[in-house]
């Protein structure tokens, strides 16, 4: 079943990539030229932006995790951010949450608390994206309303989906009725008492998760700190298109922040694995309004490399280095 799901994801992504290739079939040479003409120092700035994003993400993990385990270090949070990015790409998005919970568990955070903590972190991340997009849409109102009036329906739909996802995560973490429903379904499947061990673990986990998540929600100061960190980290990621076009004057920093945040949030309307395909199509479509299609394609490709592939490679190096060090210590 697991292999079947992975194959379905892979086929779906391949279809989307083929659609992208077909859509821009006459522009790939020009896009490649745009990429080759990107200065090395600009690439350095782009890499720095994505690294800073992950350092802030790691700082958020540390802020939450040390409440459960005071011994959780800041560098553990940094490692966790790149660790999750590695599994995000290698599992096409499905394994990122599991990877975070497993890593936190190994670092002394109870798995139940880690699950509730990750849900809270993800929920705050989604809410921050929506607020960031709405804020910079209005700060750049003249450009946005003039060029993207037709995207109003998608923007509203993306907001609605974000609210529903966030509310669902909170309810799953703190609402006792949702836990009772899950336990009821497991008991129905437990006809031969083979799931008694799982039932016992679930009952214990749900109890811990409810208490830990409810405690986090009551800490207003902590939530504000995490929200500010989220907004800052998004600033660095969403400024990447501006860095790519630095010196051309075609895209301002304000437009980069508003258009990219709109692209990311709108892409969430299309349920694709890790946003592959949907983000590229939407971002290229939105940026081609401000510049030509070749430059829009180059922006999209570099953005994907910076936010998806580069963190994966850094994560791979960190994981490999850690394993090599462990083996050397055993020798």
Task: Give the class from helix and strand content and strand pairing.
Answer: mainly alpha
How many alpha or pi helices?
Answer: 15
The coarse silhouette is globular
SSE arrangement, N to C: HHHHHHHHHHHHHHH
Protein architecture, described:
Helix 13 (253-267) packs antiparallel against helix 14. The model has no long low-confidence stretch (mean pLDDT 80). The protein is an all-alpha fold. Helices cover 82% and strands 0% of the residues. The longest helix has 38 residues, at 293-330. It has helices spanning 2-23, 28-36, 40-68, 74-90, 96-106, 111-139, 141-147, 152-174, 176-189, 196-218, 220-238, 240-244, 253-267, 278-287, 293-330. The chain has 15 helices and no strands.
Short description:
The two termini are 40 Å apart. This protein has helices at residues 2-23, 28-36, 40-68, 74-90, 96-106, 111-139, 141-147, 152-174, 176-189, 196-218, 220-238, 240-244, 253-267, 278-287, 293-330. The chain is an all-alpha fold and 331 residues long.
């Amino acid at each position: 079943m697991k292999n079947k799901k992975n194959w379905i994801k892979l086929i779906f992504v391949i279809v989307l990539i083929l659609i992208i290739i077909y859509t821009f079939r006459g522009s790939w040479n020009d896009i490649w030229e745009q990429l080759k003409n990107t200065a090395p120092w600009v690439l350095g700035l782009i890499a720095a932006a994505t690294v800073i994003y992950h350092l802030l993400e790691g700082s958020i993990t540390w802020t939450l995790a040390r409440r459960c385990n005071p011994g959780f270090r800041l560098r553990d949070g940094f490692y966790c951010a790149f660790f999750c990015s590695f599994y995000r790409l290698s599992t096409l998005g499905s394994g990122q949450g599991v990877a975070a919970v497993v890593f936190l568990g190994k670092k002394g955070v109870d798995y139940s608390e880690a699950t509730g903590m990750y849900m809270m972190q993800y929920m705050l991340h989604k809410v921050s994206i929506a607020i960031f997009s709405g804020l910079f849409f209005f700060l750049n109102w003249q450009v946005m309303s003039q060029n993207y009036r037709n995207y109003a329906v998608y923007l509203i739909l993306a907001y609605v989906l974000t609210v529903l996802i966030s509310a669902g995560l909170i309810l799953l973490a703190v609402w006792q009725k949702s836990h009772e429903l899950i336990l009821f379904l497991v008991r129905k499947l437990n006809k031969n008492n083979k799931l008694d061990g799982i039932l016992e673990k679930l009952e214990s986990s749900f109890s811990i998760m409810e208490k830990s998540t409810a405690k986090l929600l009551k800490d207003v100061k902590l939530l504000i700190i995490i929200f500010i960190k989220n907004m800052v980290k998004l600033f660095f990621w969403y400024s990447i298109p501006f860095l790519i076009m630095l010196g051309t004057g075609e895209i301002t920093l304000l437009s980069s922040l508003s258009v990219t945040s709109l692209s990311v949030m709108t892409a969430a309307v299309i349920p694709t694995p890790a946003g592959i395909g949907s983000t590229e199509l939407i971002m290229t479509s939105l940026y081609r309004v401000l510049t030509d299609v070749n430059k829009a394609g180059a922006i999209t490709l570099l953005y994907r490399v910076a936010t998806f592939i580069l963190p994966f490679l850094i994560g791979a190096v960190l994981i490999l280095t850690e394993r090599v060090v462990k083996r050397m210590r055993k020798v």
